Task: structure prediction
Amino acid sequence: MSSRYHILGAFDYLADAELLKAKLESEGIPVLLKDANILQADPFIASAIGGVKVMVYQQDRERAEEIYNSVRRYAVDRNGNPIVCPNCKAMRSERYSDRSNFWHRLFPFLEPMKYRCLKCEMITRG
Result:
């Protein structure tokens, strides 16, 4: 399945994934929501399974990413200002979690805040 599909994004809340799915389908791009039923049954395990994955066909990847980037919200600090990448100065970062530590897999809210720049892929602490 991984060779046919591209994971466009993963969301902790099913509603966020459904909104993106609706937008993409309105533009004619078929979408598959992976793990959506699991979250409907038990929403508290979202971080343990990596959230709901919004998947599109590989041939629709570029167009889907353009649409997603036009509607997505980027990370902001406590004052509402966009997070600025220290490497490339882009203001297009998203919250990042690597869950490399056993405790962070069990209790993701204990993991220190990190951000990943969508332009240069640099990971910084918040």
Observations:
- The helical segments are 14-26, 36-41, 46-49, 61-71, 102-106.
